[in-house]
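Q: Hi! First time asking for a complex rather than a single chain. Here are the components, and I think there are two in total. Is that enough to go on?
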Amino acid sequence: MSHREPVSETLDCIGLFCPEPLFQTREALDAIETGDVLEVFADDPAAEEDLTRFAKRAGHEVVSVDDLGDHKRFLIRKGNQEVRR
Amino acid sequence: MKDENAILYVQTSGEPMRQYSPLVLAQTAKAMGLNPTVYYLGMGLTVLKPGAAEEMKAGSFPTVAEMLAKTMQMGIPVLVCEASKQMLGWETVELIDGVKIVGAATLNDLALDAGATMWF
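A: Yes, that's all I need. Here is the structure of the assembled complex.
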């Protein structure tokens, strides 16, 4: 299943391990506008749980997580960072 | 999401005598209708190398392997810190079945969500 969301920026975290994918995702989200979608590729087994929890905590939306076999593709929509739970 | 009935037990040690308390507490929490989670960090991972927990036994208690198996059979999540695997140089080491590899953000998030966190 592949989502057709227009992607603003792509981040390749293949080969990187925790916490590097999270740090780079945070930086990439900081650099795009609210409502824009960041595409992240990661093969770190911790990435799905970590990125999902980070996104929720920081007010972003995980649009989709696609399992592509040896890695995953995440689409994360940047939220309004004033809105934190 | 905050869950006052969630208790997080974090195991940072590979010392055999330190293995029982969090597992006994987690199983008891489950029996009490609470939501326990066990998280292995740092040297705690040495317990999850296949064969290691079978060698650990204290007094008349079951082996740590039996305790871990019971914990997972009860449906208690057993999570493992990814960065600790790297720290030990265990990138290619397979851990025992049933554990889930997660990361630093997950531990922080679980601690904020739990009603209590206990470190061992």
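A: Helices of chain B lie at 20-31, 64-73, 82-87, 104-113. Let me know if you'd like any chain examined more closely.
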